Amino acid sequence: MTAVASDALATVRQPLGRTQAIGWFVVVVGLFTVFGMGVGTGSTPRSTLTFTPIDVSHGAPWHLGNLTLPTEWTLVLLGAVIVALGAEVLVRRRTKGAMVRVGLMAIVFLLAVLVWASRQPGPSQVPFINVTAILVGSAAITMILIYGSLSGVLCERAGVVNIAIEGQFLGGYLVGEMIDSATNNWLLATVGGVVIGALMGWLLAFLAIRYLSDQIIVGVVIVTMFTGLASYFNSWVLTPYPNLNNGNIASNLAIPGLMKIPIIGPTFFDETGYFYLMMVLVGLVSFALFKTRWGLRVRAVGEHPQAAASVGISVARTRYVNVILGGAVAGVGGVAFAAIQGQFTPSITSGFGYIALAAMIFGRWRPSGAVAACTLFGVSAYLAYNLQSYQVPISTEILLMFPYLITIAVSAGLVGRVRPPAADGIPYSRE
Predict the structure, then answer these.
(1) How far apart are CA 392 and CA 71, in angstroms?
(2) What is the rounded CA–CA span in Å between residue 356 and residue 374?
(3) Segment (H or E) for 253
(4) Phi, then psi, of 47 in degrees rounded to 5
(5) DSSP character at residue 43
(6) Where exactly does CATH 1.10.3470.10 map onto the chain?
(7) Domain spanning 131-411 has what CATH number?
(8) Model confidence at 114, in pLDDT bands (50, 70, 90)?
(9) Euclidean distance between the first and the last CA atom of the chain, given in angstroms as a whole number
(10) Residue 302 DSSP label
């Protein structure tokens, strides 16, 4: 009994120790923000926040004046917020929710770096921070990640791991860009993305379900294969025929009235059709998975396929349907990427598929959780990418590591273990 009690006590202490380490890490980052960046900056420097959107083709929102803040006290306040996040983790001593605090810490810290770098007088040639531009740019990255996370949710709730999201993004981007360049029609490009994504999903399902292949290996093979195909098409099709890679950008569909709201309007109500489609898909997938008989069957297959089969549910058919649907959603995500990014290059997706998969894990295989995780990842990624323009005295490569470090932390379970569907990644055979 003593040995059993010791093992149980060790099991309880382990996550608490990990959580405490996370809390202290967040506190240290906050103290660095206060004393390393804030205190000593002086009372002279000022940081200016502006709220002007870059795209005013549909009319500018109601005007907001610039907000000028004392750099030193702003950094002290932001650092205090980070310290409070870490202290809250230490006091609660609960693993659940710790990752949210880490994500918020990353966003606040990157904002602090922006405030510090844009101070005037200071080293940056950009004397202001455009808050609206940051939110609009972050929303674009978040949109792509949400498409990938929804794809993962659909597949893994049925018990199939979809590592191939990166390849499906790439395939959707390539096909969508070629179709739109040839036809100047984003609707046809979207159909093309759905088809190529669904075909890639079918290939994953066929190998994983029909032949019981290792789903992780199959996903990696699909990504590798389509990465090679993308390089081939880029060299032998798009380069000699540049008219198939025009780099067109989809027009925004502004919602009258709502797009006039400062900050919120340009971020949510002056977007491409793919942004609105993403929001609709989040609602549909959430409702279908948790409020319908179909969703109950899908979740049953993902949790206990033998029990599902015993009541007449076709495990193979359910998994096929969900993996193909997931591939189609990721294919649309690739086309959405092309609609906001432009010309295709073989490395254009830049690991976003894997980040979307980590966000799905962070969101505990729920669409709503995945949206929250993708928002954290999207804002962090956008800030990290754009810190370069402020001449921050940190290597560009180091700055670009931020979103991937968060991804590694989530995937490795450094901020708490999450339970996937019980049969996720486990081949099912009726025999």
Answers:
(1) 15
(2) 7
(3) strand 253-254
(4) -120, 135
(5) S
(6) 131-411
(7) 1.10.3470.10
(8) confident
(9) 41
(10) H
Phi-psi region of 425 (alpha: psi -120 to 50; beta: other; left: phi over 0): left
What does the block give as tokens for 21?
A: 């380490």
Rounded Cα gap, residues 389 and 408, in angstroms: 26
**Is residue 46 helix, strand or coil?**
strand
**Gap between the Cα atoms of 252 and 334, Å rounded:** 17
What is the chain's length?
A: 431
Tally Cβ neighbours within 10 Å of residue 84. Answer: 14
Asked whether 333 and 151 are in contact (CB, 8 A), the reply is: yes
Report the candidate in 53, 37, 42, 4 with the shortest Cα–Cα distance to residue 266: 53
C-alpha 280/C-alpha 221 separation (Å) is 31
Amino acid sitting at position 61:
P
- Return the amino acid letter for 208: A
In this structure, what is the dihedral angle of CA atoms 332, 333, 335, 339, given to the nearest 10 degrees?
A: 130
| pLDDT tens column, 25-70 | 899 999 999 998 888 888 889 999 888 877 766 666 777 888 899 9
Give 128-137 pLDDT, tens digit per residue: 888 888 999 9
d(CA 337, CA 149): 14
